[in-house]
Amino acid sequence: MNFADSLTARTKEKSPVCVGFDPDLAKLPEGITKDADGVLEFGKGIIDAVAGTAAVFKPQLAFFEVLRWEGIKVFWDLCTYAKEKGLLVIADGKRGDIGSTCEAYAEAYLYEGSPIDALTVNPYLGIDGVRPFIERAVKYDKGLFVLVKTSNPSSGDLQDLPIGDEVVHEYLAQMVEGWGTQCLGPVSNFSSIGAVVGATYPEEMTYLRTLMPHIPFLIPGYGAQGGTAADSARGFIPDGTGAVVSATRSIIYASYGADWREAAGKATLEMAEELKRALNL
Amino acid sequence: MNFADSLTARTKEKSPVCVGFDPDLAKLPEGITKDADGVLEFGKGIIDAVAGTAAVFKPQLAFFEVLRWEGIKVFWDLCTYAKEKGLLVIADGKRGDIGSTCEAYAEAYLYEGSPIDALTVNPYLGIDGVRPFIERAVKYDKGLFVLVKTSNPSSGDLQDLPIGDEVVHEYLAQMVEGWGTQCLGPVSNFSSIGAVVGATYPEEMTYLRTLMPHIPFLIPGYGAQGGTAADSARGFIPDGTGAVVSATRSIIYASYGADWREAAGKATLEMAEELKRALNL
User: B184-215 burial by CB neighbour count: b if 16+ within 10 A, else e?
Assistant: First the structure.
């Protein structure tokens, strides 16, 4: 099934919650060893706790790379585990390079039968660095999320530079919409090409939704970074689809005590309910 | 020793050649198995062949990630091997993310005693995504190379957008120069913060050298991508320092036959001589 259709179906069935997973060894809860085995145990526990409520599991590659090859092994094991538990998996790597290198990244993550459904992609190198991901996405019913307006405080350094009457990220948004209309899901009418748009910039999000009517949004910045349910709601279309909202620290580190599983499950459920209220669902 | 001073000393002692390493399994030469073990053997052979001439070895992470955990193990083994053979090592990962994630990337690659001397960094998220690398670079005598104007055909999609009288990559160049003057090498007067500037855009390079007088350039695009020695020379300062020029396919795939080691060594030597002629050294 087309990725955008899968994403839309899953968010309707469960909720638009995407659980980010940034396993910092220094923050692992009570009873978990501070190593790759600990990350595997922690990750499986989080997946079990959230799979009934969340649509998406989003592991952040940096936190696995820091554990070298053992971390990468755990990364793939967790992607497979999350997939088995009915979650869609977005690998958060923000990859981007020249064409021949992006072919390798695309092959690494978006192949037939991969447990990974989509990858985040950095557009600074232009369409060359995005095209290999689009080709793979179309071929294997996978997706990608292009960074458009990120959630961090300095995202405006380049993304908000004024070009004529618009700013860089608005110009990029129109390019992404153009790429995206090549691969629309027949059911959802959303594209396999998504955009990352931070909850921490709600006004920008409202405008970006109009510039990218066919683009699903991956919305980071909810929770620890300060974005709210009302802010995030601006990225959806009126029927409550078209976006997933990602929270990481507020869910996976909801407790550092022995009750971390329950706390993560509870935080996910509360977030889902807050979003549904904000979306009038 | 400060990274920029090491880089300058090494290029004076040997040459400004940086050998890129993109081990595509489909292209491995005769007699090499098409797996992670083959990549290790191929990489060691290339390192042995080029270590006498080149200053830098630049493995491209994408081609290791595609081999999963076994590839990552080989990546680190090759970085260590290159370091032992007297090469500086630049990990080409083009990483970039929000601050807390970049802390993890910085910890993964730029720690005390790491065989990796520098990492390529994508600036699309602004200074938040660069600062953790700068802090590590200063603390551990490491370096980073920020993508400014990349070598690929579509690099202008975002990098050349006009903002007032300049374009995005020129504006970024001035930010990089500003960050860079915080960490100048006492001997070279170059910064630990470098910039990626493609040989395929020679006019832009000439101007970028004036905008970033303290920034060492990592110049890709030589050889297979079409950049020449004369084009690349524009990124250097008059004494023939301030840049390294990277070639990948024209060196590591100089022959697919049993003579690939000799061919890689010869291609490196020829490139070094071409660069020295173009730089009047």
Answer: bbeebbbbbbbbbbbbbbbebbebbbebbebb
Question: Are the Cβ atoms of B150 and A124 closer than 8 angstroms?
Answer: yes
Using a CB-CB cut-off of 8 Å, the residues of chain B touching A171 are: 158, 161
Give yes or no: A12 in active site: no
- From CA B279, how far away is CA B239, in angstroms rounded? 8
Total residue length of chain A: 281
Residues sharing a CB contact under 8 Å with residue B43, sequence separation 6 or more, in sequence order: B21, B23, B59, B74, B78, B81
Would the ipTM clear 0.90, i.e. be above it? yes
DSSP A159-177: HT-EETTEEHHHHHHHHHH
- Res B223: pLDDT: 87
pLDDT tens digit sequence for B3-24: 999 999 999 999 999 999 999 9
Taking the C-alpha atoms of residue A236 and residue B202, their distance in angstroms, rounded to an integer, is 44
Residue type, B202: P
Q: A98, B159: Cβ pair inside 8 Å?
A: no
Indicate whether B95 pLDDT > 90.
yes
Residue found under tokens 């040989």:
B199
Q: Which residue of B has its CA nearest to A98?
A: B152
Going along chain B from its start, the domains and CATH numbers come out as 3-278 (3.20.20.70)
Can you give the pTM of this predicted structure?
0.98
> What integer pLDDT is reported at residue B224 of this predicted model?
82
What is the interface size between A and B, counted as CB pairs within 8 Å? 174
Partners of B195 in the β-ladder: B146, B217
Does residue B225 surpass a pLDDT of 90?
A: no
pLDDT (0 to 100) of residue A225: 87
Chain A nearest CA to B149, separation (Å): 9
> HSE-up of B190 (CA within 13 Å, CB side)?
28
Which of B152, B172, B220 is facing A99, going by the closest CB pair?
B152
